[in-house]
Design goal:
Blueprint lengths: L1 H10 L8 H52 L6 E2 L10 E2 L2 E2 H5 L6 H6 L15 E2 L30 E2 L13 E2 L3 E3 L40 E5 L22 E2 L35 E2 L7 E6 L4 E5 L4 H8 L11
Parallel strand pairs: 2-4, 9-10
Antiparallel strand pairs: 1-3, 5-6, 7-8, 8-11, 11-12
Length: 333
């Protein structure tokens, strides 16, 4: 009987919980594991976003080539925009992205646009808005459509610009934006693509109508589209549907990932367009290439391939890639 009582006393109160010290040790181990794993998880997610961004540009390349096969030329970067329209002319503020909509599986959206009317209310200069006031109830609501095909997944900024119209001049508020821009060059404000020197002409420009045959340097050595996520104002890039006061695109002659350019923001209401304070972002005619990816950005080449270049790319090489017939030899990049 006594032995039985002893056995019961040994088994009556089994240990069923951790001590406080043991719990603290476990919590500390878990915290260390999370600290070690979190960067790897974030890196994996960014890697996936970077792959998707590359795929976006590949789809843009397919759209451009399908358009070229159908029409015989590439669409222009922009035409009839803002102050570039002479007195008495017609302002449309259209961009090349509008004409690519059917090739992004956006045929229904394309069909709703009135191409005889403007896509923005910016009427700087001496021109008159196409369609008059109908833009307010016509094309304007369509320009708020966010196109995921034109947004880099790593781009966490707002997808629709909702700032005051006066930031860029009237007509830019409530327009969806894009993370990508056509490769352009503008030797002087409002220079038509036809009037650019042949050696400095890019695949796109103001009123451009380039063909694959124009890429004398080779389609694999000519940039078509570049990321432009960092070329922003208040965290947003340009609109895909409404051109800037002069044009829409990316100048590779500027170093990549430039966050602040040297142009002063203008009021753009009437000549002589008095300067205001210089601000971060797209204050000049065209933007700079840039991305939020670590160390560089993606480029879509005219042959449809996509390359990732370092932000420290050689200046001469960058300029040679931008132009399509300068005759310069391009090595590995």
């Amino acid at each position: 009987m006594k032995e039985s009582s002893v056995l019961k006393s040994k088994t009556r109160y089994p240990r069923s919980a951790f001590t406080l010290i043991e719990l603290l040790v476990v919590i500390a181990i878990i915290a260390v594991l999370i600290a070690l794993l979190l960067p790897a998880v974030q890196q994996a997610r960014e890697s996936a976003r970077r792959v998707q961004c590359k795929n976006n540009l590949k789809q843009i390349g397919l759209a451009l080539h399908n358009y070229h096969d159908t029409v015989g030329v590439f669409p222009y970067a922009t035409a009839n925009a803002g102050q570039c329209v002479a007195a008495g002319g017609t302002i449309t503020n259209h961009t090349g992205w509008l004409y690519l909509l059917p090739y992004f599986d956006q045929g229904p959206l394309y069909g709703k646009f009135n191409f005889d009317a403007a896509t923005g209310n910016r009427a700087t200069g001496g021109g008159t808005l196409a369609g008059g006031g109908s833009i307010v109830s016509g094309n304007a609501p369509l320009t708020t459509r966010v196109l995921t095909a034109l947004i880099c997944p790593s781009d966490s900024g707002g997808k629709v610009y909702t700032g005051a119209d006066t930031t860029y001049g009237s007509g830019i508020a409530n327009t969806a934006r894009t993370s990508y821009g056509f490769s352009v060059f503008d030797s002087a404000g409002c220079t038509l693509w036809d009037n650019e020197a042949s050696l400095s002409r890019c695949l796109f420009g103001y009123g451009s109508r380039s063909r694959l045959d124009d890429c004398k340097d080779g389609t694999s050595n000519t940039v078509a589209v570049a990321e432009t996520t960092l070329e922003v104002y208040d965290g947003v890039t340009g609109s895909w549907a409404c051109a800037q006061h002069v044009g829409l695109g990316v100048q590779l002659i500027n170093p990549p990932n430039i966050r602040l350019n040297n142009w002063a923001c203008c009021s753009w209401t009437a000549p002589p367009y008095p300067s205001a304070n210089t601000r971060r972002g797209r204050n000049g005619e065209y933007g700079s290439a840039g991305s939020v990816h670590d160390g560089g950005l993606h480029l879509l080449l005219a042959d449809g391939s996509v390359r990732f270049i370092t932000e420290n790319i050689d200046t001469t090489l960058r300029n040679n890639l931008a132009t399509m017939s300068d005759g310069k030899v391009i090595g590995e990049f």
